[in-house]
Amino acid sequence: MSDRGLSRRQYLTTVGGTAVTLSVAGCSGDGGSGGDGGSEQTITAGTAPGFPPFEMKEGGELVGFDIDLLEAVVEQTDYSFEGWEEFEFDSLIPALTNNNIDVIAAGMTINEKRDDTIDFSDPYYSSDQAIVVRADGDFAPESLSDLADRPIGAQKGTTGEGVVQDELVGQEITESQYNAYDNYVLAIQDLENGNVDAVVIDVPVANTFAANRPVEVAFVYETGEKFGFGVRTDDDARQEALNAGLSTVREDGTYEELTQKWFGE
User: Within this chain, do residues 179 and 247 fall inside the same structural domain, yes or no?
Assistant: First the structure.
C-alpha cells in the first residue's frame, strides 16, 4: 500500500490544503477526557455498518476489513479487546470524545478538521471517491460538472458528502438536489429506485456495491485520502499501541491476507 510507513502527521503535512477542502462538516466534539488513567487496559471499538467491505452486517454478524484488521491489531498489543459498538457514521466522533468507545474503526478519512477534535493512528488504507450510477441507466457522467442539475446522494459526515458540499452544491446542484443518508446501503437503494441519479462513495465500497447490485462506477474523483483508526486526543498510549500493532500485522503478512480476503488485492 502507498501509505506504508507514513505517519499521521506526515500525511497531514503532505496533503495540506487538500485535506481542508475535503474536510467534512458536522464532525465535532468537546475533546473528551478519556485515556488510560491507570484503568484496566481495554479497548472498546465503534463502527458504522453499511460500508462494505469495511464494515457490514451479514446474518446479523458484524464483519468486514476494519473489523478483522482492528481485532488483529489489538491482538498484537497489551490491550484486551472488549467488543464493538455500532453507530451512525456522524455519531462516531461524539461517541469517542464522550468516552463511550475507545477507538473508531470505520473507514474514517484523516483530515485537518477531524484532527482538531480527535487523533488518528498511522494510515492503514488509501482511497479516492467514486461516482456510482445505475448500471441499466443512460446517465454516464465523466466529470463532476456532468452531475449538474441532478439529484445526488452521499452518506452524512463522510468525505463523499464533503465532495458534494464543496464541489457541487451551489455550483452544479442546489441544496435541495443533495440527498444525505445515514448509511450507504440506503443511498444505493435510492439510486436503484431512481430517487437519485448518482452517489458519491469511496472507491472500494463502490466496487463492492457494483459487484452485488445493478450499479456501476461512472468515474473516479481523486482525493488521495487515507483511513486511520480514531482515538481521543489525550490517549497517547492507545494510539502508540495501535501504531505498533499495525506495523506488526503488516510485517507478519496478516495485512496482506486481509486485503486479499476483502478486496482481492
Answer: no
At 205, which CATH number?
3.40.190.10
Which amino acid type is present at position 62? Answer: L
- Is the pLDDT at 218 greater than 80? The verdict is yes
> Grid cell 487515507 — which residue?
226
Instruction: Please give the tally of structural domains in the chain.
Output: 2
Q: Does pTM top 0.90 for this prediction?
A: no
Please check whether residues 219 and 196 belong to one and the same domain: yes
* Residue 183 domain boundaries: 128-223
